[in-house]
Design a protein that fits this description.
With about 450 residues, the chain is α/β, with parallel strands linked by helices. Helices cover about 25% and strands about 25% of the residues. It has helices spanning about 10-25, 50-55, 60-65, 90-95, 165-185, 195-205, 230-245, 290-295, 295-300, 350-370, 410-415, 420-430; strands at about 1-5, 35-40, 45, 65, 75-80, 105-110, 115-120, 125, 135-140, 140-145, 150, 185-190, 210-215, 245-250, 255, 265, 270-275, 280, 285, 325, 335-340, 390, 400, 405-410. The strands form 7 sheets. A 7-stranded mixed beta sheet has the order 5-6-2-1-10-21-20. The structure holds flavin-adenine dinucleotide (FAD). Flavin-adenine dinucleotide binds next to α1, α2, α6, α8 and α10.
Length: about 450
Amino acid sequence: MKQIIIIGGSYAGLSALKALVGKLSPSLTSATSVTITLLEPKTGIINLLGLPKSIVDSSFADDIYSPLHQYNMKFDSIRIADKEDGRTDITATKLSLSNQETHSEFLTVNFIQTKCSKLTAKEAHYVDPVSNQPAILKFDYCVLASGRARPDVPFDPISKAHHICNKEDFLKQQRQQQDLIEKANTVTVIGGGALGIETAGELLQQYGKVKKIRLIHPYPRLLPEPVLKNDEFRDKILEQLVKLGCEVLMELRVVAERANGNLKIQSPKGEYEIESELNYWCHSYVNNLEPLSNNLELFEDCLTGKEHLNPKRRCANVNEFLQLAPISDPKNLFEKIYAVGDLVALPILKTSGGAVYMGGLAAGNIAMQILGNSEDLTEFPLSQWPPNMAVVVGTKVTLQVVDGVVVVNDKSLLAMYADYCTSRFGQTINIEFGSKRV
Ligand SMILES: Cc1cc2nc3c(=O)[nH]c(=O)nc-3n(C[C@H](O)[C@H](O)[C@H](O)COP(=O)(O)OP(=O)(O)OC[C@H]3O[C@@H](n4cnc5c(N)ncnc54)[C@H](O)[C@@H]3O)c2cc1C
């Protein structure tokens, strides 16, 4: 019996789970049975792409959440936090245990609502959600897909301050955000990366005529990602923001937020304060690498970023097959631990599509290893990975750079982003978003 664990159930993790079930189920026998366990702190998945829209239109929050029982797959066991905690998702449990798409009797699929706190080469440590006691799960193969954390609410659904565990928590939080926006006259977005641009875009589309919407960015151009080599794209995005009435302040650094919302600014001319009532910090992220960083003795050499200006920007180093690899001794790799999605140290633009792709690729490689074809592992196509990117400014303006060419308002992209790619993503991995079957 082989044990596979997947750490993180978002784009990369869920894609890995679905692909593993699809690839293994037809080939297993009593002699090659497999158990897959998904460890994820939420009893569902949020299509993060729609988060900016869900704070200005809280009804949209419902559309971008898919609870476990809408995953179109059978879980053989589900361990979720108990009722006293106010987090129970009983409906999800009952429905998922008896769910539609079944799999081979030699495959077991389990879900545990938890965060993995530490990995070893063969074990995952976590707190059991039912007993609240530390627990250990042994594994033969592991997919690390724990992604990235943003500064705070509402862009980090599992931030420490506001722990989102189920759909109810999520809808409540997004409603609160909309109430705060309704009350504010000036809303400032801090950081002009993709998240900041899309947040400002949604605020402008919904409230641009009645509120002051401001974007502050510390550099001379938007989108600081070094992998993106196209200033025309950056300039056109700026043009669209300004056209919609955004006050864009470049080359200014926000150093503090006052209790009343005002912002302390640092500029070459000195420090001063500007008025603001509500602020969205979209300036940074940290990769969720606790499972590795809590075992530096074993994994320190697999973490990049020690030399980086910002030590929080660490990534998991992988080889061409997405197996976890030490930097100074790549041949001595962890061939049964895969890292996928936003947290990997690959020089590509990190996207949800890329995470889904990597999850599927790792799943395929694990299936190969289990079914005895370790020689045929698939490589991540790094040299062919296009540096293409799409950004929306509200749902009525899309900008993309495809093979170096900037395209504004491409019809198919506009259609895809009308629901922030929710239906497309749902179809890709066969899960249902929204309240269709609750
Ligand atoms: C607001 C917003 C808008 C975006 N817009 C776009 C866009 O338009 N297009 C695009 O392509 N990309 C966009 N992105 C980026 C895209 O969402 C990411 O590339 C994608 O989420 C990466 O997927 P992932 O599965 O690697 O990680 P994540 O989506 O970050 O998922 C990680 C999962 O792991 C779980 N987790 C974390 N720590 C642990 C742990 N210790 N144990 C167990 N589970 C854990 C988390 O709960 C989460 O479910 C956007 C991101 C945000 C936040």
